[in-house]
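for the writeup, i need someone to sanity check this before i put it in the appendix. the sequnce is what the collaborator sent (i think, or maybe the updated version? ugh). structure was predicted straight from it, no edits. if anything looks off just tell me and ill rerun, i have time this weekend
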Amino acid sequence: MKRTLAAVTVGVLVAVGCGVTDTDRAGDPGRIVEKDEDRRVSRTGKRTTTRYDYDFTIQRPDGSVYELDVSRAAFDSCFVGSAYPRCLDD
């Protein structure tokens, strides 16, 4: 039972980590006006960990702007000027 649960859990994590998730679509439609990639490096003794955060700045049709955290897959598939979230389907 534990092996089955572990295998299912790993399968779900791999499937979610490899593609565009529903949380990438969690925003109002608009145009991407800026992409931002932040790199954070932390060191603990001899171990170094690097973490990346990906953000879109999106302008709604009414002109207001908001920032949205996205996955790397979404960051790589959309470009500045692209229609969001339609660029995720291409």
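The two ends are 39 Å apart (CA to CA). Helices lie at 2-18, 72-77.
thx in advance!!
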